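name: query_chain
kind: protein
chains: 1
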Amino acid sequence: MPSPPPPDFASLSLAEIARLAQENRLPPVDSWNPAHCGHSDMRITRDGTWFHQGSPIGRMPMVRLFSTILRREADGRFVLVTPVEKLDIDVEDAPFVAVEMKREGEGAGMKLAFRLNTGDLVAAGPGRGLRFEEREDGPRPYLHVRGGLEALVARSVYYELAEIALANGSAPPGIWSNGSFFALEPGA
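structure:
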């Protein structure tokens, strides 16, 4: 049975987004511990494109399905896991990309929600933090999605976050969401 299409992010309120994110029923991958079976011949590029045997996976429902069985191991590896098998998957940066953001409120009362390239919805706040990492090619913002999995925040969304942080006037510059403060400076 195919999964329903993701909801229209633009038409949802942040309360609706938070409710949908909370209701998102994912397989219990953390409780599955099958034997390691090898490599999946799959990879996820930095822009969030999923590949199998060198070809992009063009069917979004397949990508959404695979994303629900993705897990990060204690050693940092990414695996696709089912009750009967566990396969490695290569991830260039982060397995997800936060491609769109909505906000409500101002200052410490602000709430932020993100739509991922897989259609998943994530409300930033306690347990779903934003972190910023400095790299040779510039800052990289990440959003915690679940269980050690993160989304690279798309550059256009990062610019929105930076604009909000600078307008807040806090030192260090940062963003509030659902009562949590996230400094834009790495390690702050």
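note: The chain is about 20% helix and 40% strand.
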